[in-house]
Amino acid sequence: MSLTGLMVLGIGYMLVLFLCALAVERGWLPSRLTRHPAIYTLALGVYASAWAIHGSLEQAGRSGYGYLAYYLGAAGAFLLAPVLLVPIQRMARTYQLASLADLFAFRFRSRWVGTLITLVSLLAVLPLLALQVQTMGNAIQLLSGGGSQEWLALGFSGLIALFAILFGARHTHLNARHDSLLAAIAFESVVKLGAMLALGAFALYGIFDGPGDLQAWLDGPGHLAQAETHPLAPAHWRTLLMLFFAAAFLMPHMFHITFAEPLNRRTLLRAGWVLPLFLLLMALPVPLILWGAQRLGIDASATGTAYLAFGLSSSWWVGALAFIAGLAAASGTMIIISLALSGMILNHLVLVAHPPIAQPDLYRWLRWLRRGLIAAVIVGGWLFYRTVGVHHDLSTLAMASFVGMAQCLPGMLALLYWPGANRKGMVTGLVVGVSIWLAGLWPPLLGAPTGVVLLPPGLEVLADEPDWYLITLVSLAANVLSFILVSLATRTSAGERAAAEACSVDAVVRPMRLPLVAGNGMEIKQHLARALGEDVAEREVERALVALKMSPLDGRPYALRRLRDRIQANLSGLMGPSVAQDIVDRFLPYRQDGPVATEDIHFVESRLEAYRSRLTGLARELDGLRRYHRRTLTRLPVGLCAFGEDGELLMWNDALAELSGIPGESVIGAHRDTLPPPWNELLGRILAEPHSQLYKQPVALARGQRFLSLHKAALHGDHDDPGGNVILVEDHSEMKWLEDELVHAARLASIGQLAAGVAHEIGNPITGISSLAQNLRYDTDDPALLETADQIQQLTDRVSRIVGSLVGFAHGGRHVTGAAFEAVSMADVTDEALHLIHLARSGEDVQYVNHCPPAPRVDGDAQRLQQVMINLLGNARDASEPGGRVIVDAEPQGESLLVTVTDEGHGIDERVRDHLFEPFTTTKPAGEGTGLGLPLVYSIIAEHGGQIDIESPPAGRANGTRIKLWLPLNREDAESTDEPDPDR
Fold first, then answer.
1. 753 or 224: whose pLDDT is higher?
2. Per the confidence metrics, is the pTM higher than 0.90?
3. Which candidate among 214, 231, 234, 799 keeps its CA 20 to 30 Å from the CA of 867?
4. How far apart are CA 634 and CA 654, in angstroms?
5. How far apart are CA 884 and CA 888, in angstroms?
6. CA 32 to CA 711: how far, in whole Å?
7. Longest dimension (CA), the chain
């Protein structure tokens, strides 16, 4: 293939990659495709770098199936995703940690730890970057037969850097979504997999005549070729598996694509089997290509075993497939490495040396710095290739890179599973391990004959082992031993212990409950503006407020602590956790003049709720007990709230939220003095009161005046348990109103008894007056006197009826059984009830109409039925507008008499209508009704064997209410009525 054709092929591929990313960026492809979990999973195929294309061939030529360690190690890491990768993802997502250096700096609470991890990563990745560039340069030389391959490789590196800058550095935040970049990396994974499978298929069916011919060759001539390989010793196998296991999540590009990009937990768990499948498919063609080249007799010494695929055929397309596979693998790895390393260098070298305090345009400054660092990383990889890489094969470069990166493995495992590890131990172990690695593997890289390999006493038997194997064992053993001993011998700081709890598997952060100096979100903006500038502070605080759904005027201490943590996490994604923590600690400090800090119980509970699905064993049972008790308190039918010793509200249950009209989430974490009135004064009073209760306090609420009783229980804390106060709030309004009604009823009963006595005493004089009037009619014939006597007689009859009604009503209300029932005319009962209603001198502007016929009559007690009608007519009167009508009607229905009382009022609310016959349910304003009238009516009707129903509004009307009563007819009257209705 000519050099021009090769350039057209390479640049054409890069243009296709640009178009793929541009299509996603511009929205030409639907988001359901570009954000599909398969895209994220395929993007993890960036692990298959140029080593998977060319280095695996080199390794297979040397050690046979030993090349599989590269694939099996990564597959093992992702198969352990639930216990290894998911916890790391949780921490990275929660605290906005975009790199391995961010994670270590967060856990060990030191900016210098992040700087050290960044330097180690940079040194470890440079050989890997040089490997990618070297494979491109060598491929160009093999295909074109000449030319300045190093300068052409630099040209392709420039295109790769341009792509990384355009599609990876548009956002200031390192953990922003890069859908276009992920889609491009997923596309490259498909390309290199397809190219490798095509090359393997060509070798199997183009060079061999299928699997049978291949097996025959392996049993015959090929057997000699396989005998020249040197299979790996079991110890070498295990060591390689460990190195590639660590590389699968420690390498900067793998950490970035796995944890910094927005893969959700489910996608990561799915990748636990999809990525091993992808790597298996990538590994299958490697021996086929090697055996095909051996069948053709290609001289590996001329081309190098790593590039045997270019000699499988003289056809241009076979070489083009091999070149595209290598270019796709190298470019994807270089893009993600440059993005990851640029972020690490920016956050842990540049910003540590030059903090971004009061930068005029912080976002633009950070963005251009990162773009420059992306270009610098890729150029650094090319320079390392030109000065060092050209003198070594791919295996030497790869082993130097993977052994160096494995020095972070002890720290990562301790970060997840050993809360007792501290900063001094981790740094000591890392420095010791890295020093052994640099002394053993880097001198040969830089041109020295051998490196310095120090074998501990008793291990002289390993002197003949390969250098990479010895350096790996000695460096990691020294690293782990130093780490453990120093951590055990030195003290762990409080900050490290808190971070360890945040990082440990199944741990829950327990922050302290301290108030901030800033009083609300607006003041937080003012404080941060001194460090970030007004525009950046405004944007970052607003971003945090939107994420938490908070108001900038919210002054609750708990809400402000959450806001501070969110701002710190967001700034961590912008400039790294070390710089973010320094800015937040300096400009958003806690107040230290208050009471002793205690654990933030509400925050701990919310975190436990989020993690409860991950708890197991005794922890899960204890959490179940905690949730049961919490649910009991939350759903208690009595209002309950709890305050800490500092006066901060810790609990506000559902009953209290319903009573107050204030949802718990809006006041949890507030100080009692900042609660909405009247609760601040009421709860403050009971907390200040030496007694433990306040009884029936009048309180004006949105629902009207209520009478509340409060009971306080003090929780006396000790060194382990926090103290505080628990307050029960009971609504005794109905009891208070009932008591008032009972007092009023007792007063009325006394007046009634007095009235009955007075009526009885009045009866005797009235009888005498009536007798005198009757006698007067017989003693004179004077028409005038006779007329006067008639008038006196009428008036005395009227007074007698009034007295009789009062006496009868006073003696009513007695429980009467069915045996004492008699025939009662509802017309007479209604007239008598209307007579008493009129005596009350209320409702005189309401017109009453009695359409009840004298017959048929019902079986019942006249006084009890009269009480029913008085209640119903009184309710109808109260519901009617001035000038309204109340109509009473009756008609026989089967064996019952249907009595209706209809008014023209507004009607009854549906929510109340079904509960009207329950005690204390009323539609009247507080203090004007007891809610006992209709339950009494219902009881009396039930005693009579009848039924009652409510229509509101009545059929055919827009408003009003109709009460229906069905009362059994008197037998004699029932026999004279029509055939009974069978439905009744």
1. 224
2. no
3. 799
4. 6
5. 13
6. 56
7. 161
